[in-house]
Amino acid sequence: MANGKIDLKQVFGENVFNDEVMRERLPKNVYKALRRTMDEGVPLDPSVADVVANAMKDWAIEKGATHYTHWFQPMTGITAEKHESFLNTISEGRAITEFSGKSLIKGEPDASSFPSGGIRATFEARGYTVWDATSYAFLKEDEGGLTLCIPTAFCAYTGEALDKKTPLLRSMEAVSKQALRILRLFGNTTAKRVFATVGAEQEYFLIDKDLYLKRKDLVFTGRTLFGAKPPKGQELEDHYFGSLKDRVANFMKDLDYELWKMGIPVKTKHNEVAPAQHEIAPIFENANIATDHNQVIMDTLKRVANRHNLACLLHEKPFAGVNGSGKHNNWSLSTNEGQNLFEPGKTPHENAQFLIFLSAVIKAVDEYAELLRASAANTGNDHRLGANEAPPAIISMFLGEQLTEILENIEKGNGTEKREREYLRIGVNTLPPLPKDATDRNRTSPFAFTGNKFEFRMVPSSASIANPNVVLNTAVAEVLSEIADRLEGAKDFDSEVNAIVKEIVKNHKRIIFNGDGYSEDWIIEAERRGLKNIKNTVDAITAWISEKSINLFTKHGVFTEVELRARYEIKLEEYIKHINIEARTMIDMVKKQIIPVVLGEVTNIANSINVVKMAMPDLDLTTQAELLKELQLNLNLLKKETLELEAVLEEAHSFNGDIFEKACIFRDRVAEKMKNVRVYGDKLETLIDENKWPFPSYEKLLFYV
Ligand code: ADP
Ligand code: MG
Hints:
By secondary structure, this protein is of the alpha+beta class. The protein has 24 helices and 16 strands. α3 packs across α4, α12 (348-367) crosses α16 (466-488) and α12 (348-367) runs parallel beside α17 (493-508).
């Protein structure tokens, strides 16, 4: 725990087997071999692996670790770990510790319970984990002690990916390969790799844990299924960037400390728009590390909250009526030499290259909008996207006025106006320096260019950021490959560059929208432009198995068709399970908590009417009588809707057809019915003595931290 002062320099990375530690502890040749594996993906020699494993073990044990785990990210979207102690044999009663290169490189968890979408059933293969040497091993510290976590990929024996990391690594490879082709064409001969870089801003809610534990809905589903609006919500906007309460500040300090120790470069923290809502953001890293780190951040948020008797809610919409949470996935491409490919350059030459990369993203986002939408789909996000607090469910792209104008001028070709002439030819020698756009503060766009990176704002707060980045990397890789094909065969490079940008702007400008994404007008305008408005998860995830998706991902070696179909099924199953748990929790709360309390209250009022009548027969008892009637009326309706919910749930379960249709039933019948149940539950809450309501109110949850 962080008491008193923190020496940031000393603390940062303290629990990471990082470059510095490796350099210090490994023989030079081993260090070099490992570095080559990390930087260039060269397979590691088994004898080298033994030395690395041993050094890792010694380091971990010196730090106080007793166990190691192959830390991986199955398709549940959270991380998995099975702890093994370093204890190997016992010699004359003394412990001998061992950690071999073999154990470092490959693990075989009996992980048969993780979702595989039929992959393992089909091939009767078990899963195994493979060390991802590019992501540093780290020590995770919890009440159970210190554990050496080795980031790994998780695959079936037949090679199919069973996790989130493998396709992400493949997609990073794909985009690197294609981006390098473009860079070579622009004369860059030195860059060896292009990295997708990612900085994910994470939103979350923090509430009192005692209150949290009194709410079955929060415990079981992560969101409130009931809750009448409190007198005050977020309308005063006094929480956003407001000063931190001591309890929260304390939590955040502890959180930063824990994350820094694990080498996670968290930088900013602040209060968000909704009461009890906050945000934490790290400095960007390569997409693979950023994804690992975001998982650790989510895990640590929960753990540290618990320590402070707080509960951290990562759900996309824990409370109706106030903003939900998302993740802003900031994404860019950068060479291993540190050149950001979306940084408008200073010379015409650099700018031509910039415009080619920018155009590639414009086309990729328009062409693969449905996949991007699918990558941001989960049950929680269905309550958030399009609810005037998050971007709409329509994918569009914000570029800012200046950049849009430049592109429009390029599209128009050689005009006569002076203004146009300034921007006209993007040929290597003629393009003037691009002005840096200062208008990047559009908050309503799902996909915004923010100066030298893109901010994908649809991403769900509770989900892994792997999928959105897999789609981005692969879609951009595809467009870059098309562009590279053309440019490599071009007779006149400059005019081909010009022609490509022009063509992309012409064909894909419908995706560019700089206005208010929350407005009604935009929904109409988007429809006119032919942009899809995909409102829910079930509809969104069909994109995974479209022909376009299969072609894209198989071409770039990111997913096989089998893997895509598996993921699609898992997503549908997950959706069904979530709605099912929510419905069952709701029914449980109504029957065991709300109805008994309301019945008691009805009886109380009836008794009181009788007693008062006896004491003073002439008194006007309208107030009591009306309250009694209103309670009974809403109670009856609540009961009726709940019975109907039970019936549709049963019906949904007994449906034996196609899983997609089954998911549709859960969406259209079960989830819809739940809305009705909630109406009467919330109404009753407003009619009852707050001290008698069976679970803590929104007021307490949101304002009592
Ligand atoms: P906002 O104005 O959206 O709140 P922040 O400064 O909080 O912006 O977050 C921006 C995020 O974008 C940070 O995580 C930052 O590290 C990240 N970022 C900055 N540059 C890049 C880049 N080139 N690639 C990826 N992410 C980046
Ligand atoms: Mg942001």
